[in-house]
Amino acid sequence: MEKIGITTTVPIEVLMAADYQPVDLNNVLVTDPNPGRLVNIAERAGFPLNCCSWIKGIYGVCLDYGIDNILGVIGGDCSNTIMLMEVLKLKGRNTLTFAYPDQSDPQQMQYALLKLAATLGTTLEAAGRVREELQPVRDLALRLDKLTWKQNIVSGWENHLWLVSTSDFNQDFHKYYRELQDSLEVCSRRQAYPAGQIRLAYLGVPSVYARELYPYLERCGARVVFNEVQRQFALPVPGASLAEQYSHYTYPYSIHDRLKDIKTELRRRQVDGVIHYVQAFCYRGIGDIVFRDAIDLPMLTLEGNDDFSLNNHVRTRIEAFLDMLLRSRQRLNYSKQALGK
Description:
Layout: E1 2-6, H1 12-17, E2 20-24, H2 25-31, H3 35-44, H4 53-64, E3 69-75, H5 80-90, E4 94-99, H6 106-120, H7 124-149, H8 156-164, H9 173-188, E5 198-203, H10 210-219, E6 222-227, H11 228-233, H12 242-247, H13 255-268, E7 273-279, H14 288-294, E8 299-304, H15 312-340
Helix pairs in contact: 2-4, 3-4, 4-5, 7-8, 7-9
């Protein structure tokens, strides 16, 4: 299958039906031994310093890794992708675009899927057969998610890593399925994490320093039991059709649609506090205002740009936040004991 780079989660069933192998360019960026150099490629090409590092990094990946075909999401994700596609086209890349509807509507999604299938020379019937083939893989990823918050035998980092990879299944869904089965077998033999651990939710796009963030939280006595966007990549509400499946995918739509899912999961997973990650220079950071108004839990907002490692400032803020959560829990327990007496 010919490779095609994707700038975020897209209906990969259509791409695969057209004999393309999706490659999530974000995942390639953060797993590169030196992602900063990929950002530098874009800056040397003229990308401004106050442009999101994900956009610059994606550009660097396309040039450095020789990705010739790119499908950019220009509606429902990042508006900078529009101009990124123009620059990649200037550099001789074959660029295609996809736009999610402006609202979660299966009929509008059906039209968008038909247009994408026609562009790629395939049909939605063929994409539907790929959807059936991928469903057991998505189900297994969602089983891992349940083991994270209900059985408490999967770490927040493992949850992030396996769920974020469902955007392209690490470019080989058969291998992904086998490796996830092996991982779950290992997890099944573990003892559960301590019941007294602080339980966190992570909202927003995956962070540039995710590799260090999750282990650091666990060293500080906390664990992420809900990765919002990563879980959405796995499409937790499949629906009856491809159009319904991607209409239930919350990330491209209104923040209020996202909140319905978020608030349900916060209650179900008994979350103590929330980390909201925002990418520097991204309009989605303004959504922090809405989250803080709608979510009745302590919230820590973290920002990242091209810092692919946790700096001391972020570490200190995390420690202070977790200390506050722990003290709040202790005060609550003391009040309950006093009332019991």
